[in-house]
Amino acid sequence: MGQHKHKTSSIPDGVFADPTVLVNSEASPLNVRSPQRRSGILRLPPPPKVSEESLITSTPGAHSPGKTSSEVAFTIKGRRVRAWLTSVGLNLIPTSASWWTPWAHWYHPPDCIPFEEILSACARNRPSMLPCKALHQHLIVYTFKRQRRKRCEWKPCRIVLKSQDAEMVQEWAMRINIVLRTESQRPTNLLVVLNPYGGARKARKIWRKKAQPVFLLAGIKCTVVETQRAEHAKEIVTGLSLSELQSFDGFVAVGGDGLFQEILNGLLAIRGTGGQAGQVAAHLRLGHIPAGSTDAVAYSLNGCRSQYTAAVHIALGDRTPLDVMRIDMSSGEHRYAVCVASYGYMGDLMRTSERLRFLGPVRYGLAGAWTLLRGAAYEAKVSYLPCDMMGGAQPRECRAACNVCAPALPSRDVGDTAAFMTSSRKSLAQDGWVHRQGRFKSIMAVVTCCRSDMSTRGLSPHGHLCDGRLHLLLVHATSRLHYLRFLASIPREGVRPGRFPFVEVVDCTAVHLLPEGMQSCWNADGELLPDNEVTMKVHRGLADVFARGIE
Ligand SMILES: Nc1ncnc2c1ncn2[C@@H]1O[C@H](COP(=O)(O)OP(=O)(O)OP(=O)(O)O)[C@@H](O)[C@H]1O
Prior knowledge:
Radius of gyration: 26 Å
CATH architecture of the largest domain: Sandwich
Protein name: DAGKc domain-containing protein
Domain DAGKc: 185-331
Pfam families: CERK_C, DAGK_cat
Region (Disordered): 27-69
InterPro entries: ATP-NAD_kinase_N, CERK_C, Diacylglycerol_kinase_cat_dom, Lipid_Phosphate_FormReg, NAD/diacylglycerol_kinase_sf
Number of helices: 13
Low-confidence stretches: 1-65
Strand content: 25-35%
Bound molecules: adenosine-5'-triphosphate
Number of domains: 3
């Protein structure tokens, strides 16, 4: 960045790597838990001995309620602003623009940058262009901006506030960082599992260019492990010792839905063992940096497939409970999934696409066309346990602070007697199962809304992150043309009840499928299951994820 430019800019990749800002991934003024973490990632002076409480209550000189500092004049992009700190964040009011920067009139700084949206702050000296002024002090606030058209899509940015008062700038940077440090939900230590093999094989680059810089700015220590083979991610997680588990705040998958699912399965396996490790695992959160082919998990959590957005949600320490579906196979094996399990068309598509993996994400289009032309339909007996948890209310799309999901407390069960550890088959003994027998093109049990590039509003637009419901989509045998019309409608509106006579949509809590005759295969969150006779049951809010829902 030029010395004379004062930007409120998106952070280009190179800036993250600026050695004056980032020294190493472990060092940060925000890192307080790990003794080996050194201070100084942002080159801040050592904090003076002052209690944190006194920093977030009023200080002498503050002359208006709510203020925790006096008003100070800064310049942002040539526009003068008055700024002060409150217990909520950094408040800004624009005043005038310098006569030599008339364009600054068009720059409107935000009224407030809340602490909860700040990744970190730092102070930096900048030589002035004018000979009469030796140094400019920059207070750099690292935050994010929302895209104008798509509010849920975030991009990291920095706001550079220029002043000539070096001491004040350093003090403000320090005070902001101290407040961030008190936000207990922010992670300080993460285990990052990266699948270099997933999607377009760009996971390493995505990590290096997009996610890691955000975590560095937020002062998060990351331990990165690359998977070597299928199921390795689960082994990595289950192989952690108790002290390692205690040191992490969560696990981050850099890959596709399959990788996320493996980590989730590993985490729930630890919870199933009970004891102290199970207790610790019950409080760990999962994050997904999309680097796969579909990335429905990240898309459904954040409303977009942006890696920056996912990384910022993780760095800010967002937390929301997520429904998890347990799938029990007749062989006795079980698997957990969070998006969708599908039999028929989507199962065939996945089986074909796995053979074409060398083509990258294009394989899905080719496999989809081939499966459609085959036009197979499968005989099966489907049973489900219906529910009406909406109480007749109009279905609503799930959003941040969703009141359908809100009442759910995340399940913290541990041990092998926990509900999620008992086979879904036990629910078959319950009353109220509804049975359907016939030929189906496709059968899908959708847990969340299940968004992806192919269905931006979700397969089930009214699916929620944490409502304890499955949406069972039964697509009865029909002609290829009708089925194509059904598929074509999904990207625009998802699967809606009543839209096509051959499509049934029911809300339920458990599903059982007994295949008859020729069989397809199950595809659970992008992974093929080895068995086709399955029972599935949803567990409300079983896992915690780094997300806040779609804004
Ligand atoms: N190093 C590796 N070599 C081979 N396979 C791997 C490796 N690491 C992970 N896998 C397997 O690769 C599969 C696909 O991974 P992943 O889900 O990350 O990508 P994807 O399938 O392309 O994306 P999506 O699931 O979003 O469609 C998973 O089943 C995982 O077990």
